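Let us work through a complete example step by step.
Step 1: write down the sequence.
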Amino acid sequence: MPLSKRLFDIMLSALLLMLLWPVLAVVAVIVALSDGRPILFVSERMKTPCTGFGLIKFRTMIDAGADSGVSGGDKVERMIRYGAILRRTRLDELPQLWNVLRGDISLVGPRPPLRQYVEKFPDLYTRVLRSRPGITGLATLYFHTHEELLLEKSRSAAETDAIYSRACVPRKARIDLIYQTHRSLCFDARILLVTLLCKMR
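Step 2: predict the structure and record it as tokens.
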């Protein structure tokens, strides 16, 4: 990662954490009142093809122990009260600003994948993860809503995995690689601005 991008990440994520701490506190209370503790959910994701890290989110589902894989229609019944709203507004992802400060991810980049998909598509993710993963990115802007529509039709973990592997992974990767060839601080700033405007609609 270029030093300029890392400094941009540190300064902006630190500023956002200072400004948004009341929002973080309110969301934490909402999760606690909805379903108790834990308030946070930590999921292993990959920042390189070989290196994983703990991605932090506000918990939006009832804990299922050995649960794994992406979220599809098969997990809807496990959603806690207000969980869908937190996901739709992406407020559940605010704790990832801490991941940015730690250097696990960037503000902008491909969404960090689960280990199982990096191992399933090693050649693809070797290329995609040349960019530091991010909270938002080009693929998030242009494919996230369509991905949710595809996955909400699934009724089992196996079906969710099949849809995600067949229809989502390759399409998201193509967009992530487009970002990779055009990435710059100006492009990152534009993606962040569009992400914010989309969530304010």
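Step 3: interpret the result. The first helix runs from residue 3 to 35.
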